UniProtKB/TrEMBL annotation:
Residues 1-22 form the signal peptide. It comes from the Bacteria. Residues 793-864 form the Alpha-L-rhamnosidase C-terminal domain. Its EC number is 3.2.1.40. Keywords: Hydrolase, Signal. This is alpha-L-rhamnosidase. It is an enzyme of class 3 (hydrolase). One of its GO terms (molecular function) is hydrolase activity. Residues 173-331 form the Bacterial alpha-L-rhamnosidase N-terminal domain.
Length: 899
């Protein structure tokens, strides 16, 4: 389609630069500000263990058409050196518009060293910024030899219990700097002098512990005093027997230093938590609390019956890696207002929102009284919680009172997926506030907003965001509630985009791709979930998410390291899939387009599609992956691989067409929505056949009374292809359905997060009520209703497109996406046949804006002929839109719509 534009894209950029230069304005430095310095996508990180970290920044300016032409970065060991431009690395002036994913290329960075950096830029119109304020980054422990601490554990073991490791130390001198490097498996929290270190919960992020163990780094100077009590609580979590490794490195103002290791914390005890498991919950007996634990006391000789001695333990096996993703935190607290009593003495709190986290209980009663909190997504008709769909997860917390006045408790090392909390055993009827709900997830920053005139779509949007937000617990989980909570790669293949428009995944995805790589065998096979807990090896070939994590991180965040670092593994997986072909068709499939409406399933109760051949999906994804790999080979300078994988892609497309194209029907395989939309999405349909395929696709939707028949993957392609090929109104009708199967149907049946099935189900079969895999409609809102689409040829939003599809029923749609360049806005409204389209393009970015219009020549921008407006260039007419190239700034287009 792009080909139809009047000018080639390459020429456009040059033209745009020329145009802006021609304007000849000299930018006063004061109007160009460099903000948002990030290193490896984090602000002033400590404990970084990436040897060539990547820098990024934002340019802020009030002017239009601000485009960086060059940058310069200086990295130094001190602020003083930095001020004198005298550092370990000075990039010199680099001619480039890039401002994200810029790799450090100076001499090797040293473990534990702190570095400062700054950047300045030049713009195409002759402007130059001042140096930015200094950013910083501090390296972590780069080599295993930097770890002087052993792993320790309480070897006799206390199954299911939290183990407390304790030590004390005194110091007389003044602390200059204190760093803590720590990991405790499965989950840990550290307290220094009875104060919890940091605000992470459920740390560390889960991983394949025999391959990689995450540690966190903290500045703990402010926690220390002369007498110090160090206490670390470690729970089984996803690991099993609690193990601890930590070292605290303290530098004193007199130049001396000391290091404390886990060996200083060898006094162990158990606490009041009688058991703690991820799926089942925690049992806490407050009568067992021993407040002395926080006091500077370690029993002499450990002869006290409550104490034992930790021993040096085997390493879990994996290398120590600094945790790069945002930690899990309590991100919000809700107070459920609805309390029912379906049975005498049994109270159910309704949070009115399905979510992931836990509850905090406030109660007063006699010693020994036992209170249970049962968590569930649904209720039985009688109002009691229904936990059947949690399978073997008990999802129950128990608190036993100590009987000393008002007691408030919440668990530490478990979490639940729930809307309802059923409380039993209370001494009296509860009141609002006795249960508070903590929302717990990786604290990725929200980056997107979407709002339109149809409240149903707004509700769907909120439902998808809430579902994504419920499924970020170290890995992108499939669900937060039952005995599963795994990072399923098939689901993620389509989740990535719905997720990146709503939250900043620049660090999370870089972590999760490592998890996948850790599952890879020498034969190239990866597993269905990462870290590998269950599922199959080799993974289903629809697990294109392995490549997509790298590709989308490049496309959206400009991250180049991720492709370079993972290239060999990605290639291994593609080679493996290629080795599993016969006549070009991949010879296996487990899930394919998983979980379509049940009448399109292969058998009653099955979630496998009846009409969409699994091998069609597998082969399509081989094509998709081979094409992506060819582009990655090109980017990393591997010319022969580029050609090789392009050929593999071509052969695979031929086999796909040879095997599944049906000349009689004019469609693929069963000529259903999934097969036809997938083929169109892949771009492998012969041009002469496209009209028939598109017609079949749209007709099939009409035949099903504007309902979808697709599963977790092809729903995305269905919505996108209908829109792209002239049937936006049809896609909109699917989006706004309220009868089964549809998102509106979920909402009408009380959903606040997405279901796993298109059907409402509550029994013990597969029916999670908080499952992100059906949420790709949300990326359709951003990419098609708002029209914000990145350009992989110019990654990191160096260039992008705004192409809104203005559907009849909507009066307006508006929203934004906070990209690595800054905030992009797109908002349109219709009134009396006039379309207003307001867009914001961040500085140092160029966008191609499609303005829908029936009279392209009469489009205006800020009241003037758009083609002549400053920083706007008319490119031509396409698909009923005037197409303009615009530089940074705010633009107000007006156009006439046919009526
Ligand atoms: C997961 C799904 C996944 C499926 C694949 C289920 O157990 O919850 O999200 O797509 O397995 O078989």
């Amino acid at each position: 389609m792009k080909k139809q534009l009047l000018y080639g894209i390459g020429l456009l950029l040059a033209g745009c630069l020329g145009m802006m230069q021609a304007a000849g304005r000299q930018a006063p430095a004061a109007d160009l500000r460099i903000e948002g310095l990030r290193c490896e996508y984090a602000t002033d990180p400590i404990g970084l263990d990436v040897r060539s970290p990547q820098f990024s920044w934002r340019t802020e300016s009030q002017r239009r058409g601000v485009l960086q032409s060059a940058y310069q970065i200086v990295v130094a060991r001190s602020q003083e050196e930095l001020a004198q431009d005298n550092g370990v690395w000075n990039s010199g002036r680099i001619e480039s518009s890039r401002s994200a994913g810029i790799r450090y290329e100076g001499p090797a960075l040293s473990s534990k060293e702190r570095y400062y950096w700054k950047v300045r830029v030049w713009t195409t119109d002759g402007g130059q910024s001042d140096w930015s304020a200094a950013g910083s980054f501090e390296m972590g422990l780069l080599d295993e030899k930097d770890w002087v601490s052993d792993w320790i554990a309480y070897v006799p073991g206390k199954p299911g219990r939290i183990i407390y490791f304790k030590g004390t130390f005194c110091q007389q001198k003044e602390v200059e700097k204190a760093r803590l490097y720590i990991s405790g498996l499965g989950y840990y929290e550290m307290y220094i002098n009875n104060r919890k270190v940091g605000d992470h919960v459920l740390d560390p992020a889960q991983s394949s512990y025999d391959k990689r163990v995450y540690y966190a780094s903290y500045d703990v100077k402010d926690y220390l005093s002369q007498e110090n009590v160090l206490l670390v609580a470690v729970a089984p979590g996803w690991y099993g027997m609690p193990k601890l490794r930590m070292q605290m490195e303290i530098a004193y103002t007199d130049g001396s230093a000391t290091t404390l290791t886990a060996n200083h914390l060898r006094a162990v005890t158990t606490g009041p938590t009688v058991y703690s498991t991820v799926f089942d919950g925690e049992l806490y007996d407050a009568r067992l609390e021993a407040p002395d634990i926080y006091k500077p006391f370690v029993p002499a000789g450990l002869m006290n019956k409550d104490w034992g001695l930790a021993h040096i333990a085997d390493s879990p096996g994996g290398k120590m890696v600094s945790q790069k993703m945002e930690p899990i935190r309590v991100v919000d607290t809700l107070t459920p207002k609805i309390i029912t009593e379906p049975k005498p003495g049994v109270y159910v709190f309704d949070t009115e929102q399905n979510l992931a986290g836990w509850a905090s209980l406030t109660v007063e009663g006699e010693r020994g009284r036992e209170i249970t909190l049962k968590f569930a997504e649904t209720l039985y008709d009688d109002g009691l919680v229904n936990q059947e769909n949690l399978r073997n997860a008990k999802a129950t917390d128990t608190y036993i009172l100590k009987g000393e006045g008002v007691e408030t408790w919440e668990p530490k090392f478990t979490y639940h997926g729930f809307r309802y909390v059923q409380v039993e055993g209370l001494p009296h009827a509860p009141k609002v506030g006795d249960i508070r709900v903590k929302i717990v997830r990786n604290a990725v920053a929200p980056v997107g907003k979407f709002h339109c005139s149809n409240e149903l779509l707004n509700r769907i949007h909120r439902m998808v965001v809430a579902t994504e937000a419920s499924n970020l617990h170290g890995v992108p989980t499939d669900c937060p509630q039952r005995d599963e909570r795994m990072g399923w790669l098939n689901d993620l293949t389509v989740r990535i985009e719905q997720a990146v428009y709503n939250f900043d995944f620049s660090r999370f995805y870089a972590k999760f791709i490592d998890d996948i790589a850790d599952t890879q065998h020498e034969d190239g096979t990866i597993t269905c979930v990462a870290p590998y807990r269950f599922g199959a090896r080799p993974a289903d070939p629809v697990s294109a998410s392995y490549l997509l994590l790298a590709w989308k991180s490049y496309e959206y965040y400009g991250n180049r390291n991720i492709i370079r670092d993972h290239y060999d593994g990605l290639k291994g997986w593609v080679d493996y899939l290629a080795s599993r072909t016969q006549d070009g068709i991949v010879d296996y499939s487990y899930y394919g387009d998983w979980s379509p409406p049940t009448q399109f399933a292969a058998a009653p109760g099955s979630a496998v599609s009846r009409d969409t051949p699994g091998q069609l999906m597998s082969t399509g994804y081989l094509y998709y992956c081979a094409s992506m790999l060819s582009k990655m080979a090109e980017l990393t300078g591997r010319d022969s691989d580029k050609a090789r994988y392009a050929q593999l892609a071509e052969r695979t497309a031929e086999a796909f067409n040879r095997t599944y194209w049906n000349e009689q029907t004019g469609g693929y395989a069963a000529n259903n929505q999934a097969a036809n939309s997938f083929a169109l999405f892949l771009g492998i349909v012969d041009e002469t056949r496209i009209p028939r395929v598109v017609k079949n696709l749209a007709d099939d939707v009409e035949k099903h009374d504007y309902h979808l028949t697709t599963g977790n993957l092809c729903t995305k392609y269905l919505m996108e292809m209908l829109t792209r090929y002239g049937h936006a109104e049809t896609a909109y009708r699917i989006a706004t359905q309220t009868t089964y199967p549809s998102w509106g149907y979920m909402l009408q049946n009380g959903a606040t997060t997405l279901w796993e099935r298109w059907e409402y189900a509550t029994g013990d079969e597969m029916n999670s009520h908080n499952h992100p895999m059906m949420g790709s409609i949300d990326s359709w809102f951003y990419k098609y209703l708002l029209g914000i689409v990145p350009d992989a040829e110019h990654p990191g939003f160096d260039r992008f497109t705004i192409h809104p599809y203005v559907v009849d029923d909507l009066e307006f749609a508006e929203g934004e996406f906070n990209s690595v360049k800054g905030t992009i806005r797109s908002g349109w409204s219709k009134k009396n046949g006039v379309l207003s389209l307001n867009v914001t393009i961040p500085a140092n970015s160029v966008a191609t804006v499609y303005v829908p219009s029936s009279r392209v020549g009469s489009i205006t921008e800020s009241g003037k002929n758009a083609a002549k407006a400053p920083s706007v260039r008319f490119l031509g007419e396409q698909d009923g839109c005037g197409v303009f190239e615009v530089g940074s700034g705010d633009y107000r287009f007006r156009s006439t719509l046919k009526k």
